Amino acid sequence: MSTEDTGDDWAEAMAEQAIEEAQAVELDELTDTAAALSEDDVAKLDSIMDIPVTISMEVGRSFISIRNLLQLNQGSVVELDRVAGEPLDVMVNGTLIAHGEVVVVNDKFGIRLTDVISQTERIKKLK
């Protein structure tokens, strides 16, 4: 069996699982009650839209002494603080913004967001 067959089988299994897990949910109608932005506000917003940020996915963490760090070599295993199958943390500039799971699309790794941290929760974690 080639790796391409395995990837296609895996993608099909993930698609089947997504269909099985999908449930119809009734959503409240969203209404935009915010006032329209002035031209000055739009210009200010546009000025920050192109600022680059670093996005990273964190599988887990481990704290070890420098002595143990220097003893690591090829084949060493570092135990992380996560259980297998737990969602990854999606960090932007070191701030947790979401949780997700690894996916493979066109032979490249990606992440599917499963839970986005609300702005209120992020502010609470800063305090």
Automatic annotation (TrEMBL):
GO terms for biological process: bacterial-type flagellum-dependent cell motility; chemotaxis. It is a peripheral membrane protein. InterPro entries: FliN, FliN-like_C, FliN/MopA/SpaO, FliN_T3SS_HrcQb, SpoA-like_sf. It is found in: Cell membrane; Bacterial flagellum basal body. Keywords: Bacterial flagellum, Cell membrane, Cell projection, Chemotaxis, Cilium, Flagellar rotation, Flagellum, Membrane. SUPFAM superfamilies: Surface presentation of antigens (SPOA). Residues 47-117 form the Flagellar motor switch protein FliN-like C-terminal domain. GO terms for cellular component: bacterial-type flagellum basal body; plasma membrane. Gene3D superfamilies: SpoA-like. The keyword Protein biosynthesis does not apply. One of its GO terms (molecular function) is cytoskeletal motor activity. Belongs to the FliN/MopA/SpaO family. This is Flagellar motor switch protein FliN. It comes from Shewanella canadensis.
